[in-house]
């Protein structure tokens, strides 16, 4: 019941001032709100015995008015500081999740889908926000508040108090049973939410493909089925939460019945005054909220407990951290020495040996699935580093990877564009300079830019949905060139452009600064024929290497592909 409080102690310590103010205000509210029933009993007995004077009555009414006004003011401060702290909790959890996502290598995303990450970053974080805000208020009202009520009732008549609270232990057993049911049903609902989020995200990205294959109705049916399952799971949660609230009302009702039944007998026997009976019944009526608050707290606690477990699973994922070396290398000589790499049990790269002195142009070709992209990704430093890759003689484990990545320009096969303006997609946080237009020209994008009414201020849709495949490629290339990279890594960047545009881009790539090292993957051999060296990968191994003419002379895979693509047999 209170385990989550201990789990979140780091947060409560960080915001102890807000919680101290809020909880202190709640303490005074809970004390002051219990005074009116006592005064009602005093007035009732005073009227019966004809001992209540008008001056005493005015004093009591003035006190009641003052206490009500103070309670309203304290309530404002309690809500303000408590829910401000809850908003801070959600903010900090989102920051922790974002920090986790940014610093993880791709293996992390092999285990967590986008929909799952979205669900845990929104729904689960909101559940924790409810717990750190409303949950703390409900906990206070279900512990301290009823304890004070019982003390005041005991002061009036301990016999009647003990009789009236006999049903309350039933609430403990009911809450223990319903606690497990809420946890089970909420976990199912959250998993279903993950699946639904993933499906909606996939459909929004692949809407054109679904329409092209006339799959709207089929996918709509799948979405409806999943949504219906989520509805049923959510209904289960609501059912058990409602049962919790029902027991929170029914059991105090039983206490009220016992108090009335035995209270009348106590009054007739002279053990209790009529005013005391009125006060005790008013206090019992006030006990109904603490019982309901207890049920509310248990429901919020169970949902937050489940959500915290899911968030912790994300934050504590056993991912191999990337080393943080401290060596800064001003040069740019790369080398691969017997490099091997695998995503799973099957090797993807086998015994790769390469020397890439600064300024070299390396072409990388080969059949589909031969390891070309995998080889290029090793230079990004985003996977657990393998032995044998060195920069200026230093192992990747020893260099400052963050500084090293700032020297990279990378254009992947899948072009990532954001729902921002075209200019912001290129700058990506960098300062704007006149070199921006130069980069657009080098990437062959200027003719497209002229046709856009808003030019560089054109807003791109979700992942650049309003651009063609070739435009996305060239925009990504302009982004990479704008950073004036020391290492330019191009993964099949020219696959969606026409021959004239390809020739334009190749001409500008040849004019890159001499110190820029270029690694170019391409299925068009015409794109790599002018490279200093080209390697052919086959099943993770280098099967052929050399210049364009040397590879043609080997009469191997490169030669066959050159002929198939319309080249001359020279």
Protein architecture, described:
- This protein is of the alpha/beta class.
- 63% of the residues lie in helices and 10% in strands.
- It has 21 helices and ten strands.
- A six-stranded mixed β-sheet has the order 6-7-8-3-9-10. A four-stranded antiparallel β-sheet has the order 2-1-4-5, with no helix packed on it.
- α3 (16-32) packs antiparallel against α5 and α7 packs antiparallel against α9 (169-205).
- 33% of the residues are buried.
- The mean pLDDT is 82.
- For the residues shown, what is the average pLDDT? 82
Q: In DSSP terms, counting alpha (H) and pi (I) runs of 4 or more, how many helices?
A: 21
**If you compute it from the alpha carbons, what radius of gyration comes out, rounded to the nearest whole angstrom?**
35 Å
Biggest sheet, spatial arrangement of strands: 6-7-8-3-9-10
The profile of the biggest β sheet is: 6 strands, mixed
Measured as a percent range, the helix fraction is 55-70%
Strand content: 5-15%
Shape: elongated
User: What's the β-strand tally?
Assistant: 10
Q: Uncertain segments of ≥5 residues (pLDDT<50)?
A: none
Structural class assignment: alpha/beta
Give the termini separation: 79 Å
